[in-house]
Design a protein that fits this description.
With 158 residues, the chain is of the alpha+beta class. 20% of the residues lie in helices and 30% in strands.
């Protein structure tokens, strides 16, 4: 794969220089070469809820026809509708890249039940526990709260 990686770097992607393992069957058919098989790789990124690093295995199925020059398929289809052989060579990179990118989750999660981050302190809710909370006081009542807190320290003042 290319040196810049595949996917959305920083969110979820095959890291730069990452390996993609191909298991392919190439068959000669009337209109060209039919490529079928799988591509497997490891993707890395971060959870969209808690921002923890994550890693996952991705395996995608591939099926692509590479049309022979001057075949009926070559003559009756637009340039971007079907892949073509160029000087008896097949360029698998665009097909593999597209298949992997389409298989990546739009919202990667470290686990389906990830709780995310606390909106007040930014801590990871899974680490903070179920008792975690922050007492918030309406700013309009803050002066009254301060007065009551002062009376708790000195109960004789009323």
């Amino acid at each position: 794969m290319p040196a810049e990686g595949v996917g959305l770097l920083g969110v979820i992607a095959v890291p730069p220089g990452g390996n993609v393992e191909l298991d392919l069957l190439l068959e000669s058919v009337v209109e060209g070469v039919l490529v079928t098989g799988t591509a497997a790789t490891t993707v890395e990124g971060e959870c969209s809820r808690c921002l923890e690093p994550l890693s996952a295995e991705v395996e995608v199925e591939l099926t692509e026809l590479y049309a022979y020059p001057d075949s009926t398929t070559d003559e009756t289809t637009e340039e971007d509708e079907v892949s073509r052989l160029h000087d008896d060579l097949i360029d698998l990179e665009p097909v593999v890249r597209d298949a992997i990118v389409l298989a990546l989750p739009q919202v990667p999660l470290c686990s389906p039940d990830c709780l995310g981050l606390c909106v007040d302190c930014g801590g990871r809710l899974a680490d903070l526990g179920p008792d975690h909370g922050h007492e918030t006081i309406d700013p309009r009542w803050a002066a009254l709260q301060e007065r009551f807190d002062g009376n708790r320290d000195n109960p004789e003042e009323k």
